[in-house]
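So, who can interpret the following?
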Amino acid sequence: MRLGIDIGGTKTDAVAIDDAGGLSQRIRLATGFGSIAVVETAVAAVARIGELTGLPASGFQSIGIGIPGMVDSASGHVAHAVNLGLERLELGGELAGRLGVGVRIENDVKAAAVGAYHLMGLDGTMAYLNLGTGLAAGIVVDGRLWRGADGIAGEIGHIPVDPNGVICACGQRGCLETVASGSGVARQWRTDDPLPVRSLFAAAADGDPEARAIKARLAAGIASAVRVLVLTVDVDSVVIGGGLSHLGDRLLCDVHEVLDEWAQASPFLASLSLPERVRLIPEGSPAAAIGAALVGES
């Protein structure tokens, strides 16, 4: 049995998978805020899965955790996980002390990339494009993460695409994330709906011209991310996940439409068959938790 935990901004997802990679147990619980609470959440998740499987922490083949922020997977150090109230936390060391076993810590998007690759039965190269509050990608080559020299591989949300755009949280201007993300939508579309993108799509369907313009920019931004991933890494497939993926075919069709338009104008892009490479992760898949379990022994 391998144990994987995905620590999100509000919810934590934990799974146990068997030797064949099949899902054995799954639980969800609320995520605490701040360093102490995050550690307690992880410990509670291990305990709950342990009760269901009958295994102590030391009984698992490996334990892995996916968490937002800048993660040093070698040391288990986490930094700048703002939504969790973490500036700096030696999460790997803290949990090893509490659980008595080593724990592998990985960035949540990278963990989700491994999980998606496994869940969807893919081979070759894949990019997992996470469309959530921000935008980032995880790249998997023959089943293994490609992190790059400093673990930054896939941070395409901070590629500037508009020199006249707004200032991004990273300090650059006009980054891809400022238009192709949940936060990008929320900035442009003011609403009382707790899910601004839901309100945006509803208003666009009703014919609101501003909503339609923002929705078009969102689709173009996502299509740009797909193009970047294919042109830089030449991945076989781009799997869209994250909060915005819940829009399903409504989002995918918009992205395909943009890619098709580009292909009509460019024989070069047409030769790359970009629309055929893009797919959605299956709804409700615990990709990040399963990926965390799989990277736990890497």
About this structure: The mean pLDDT is 94.
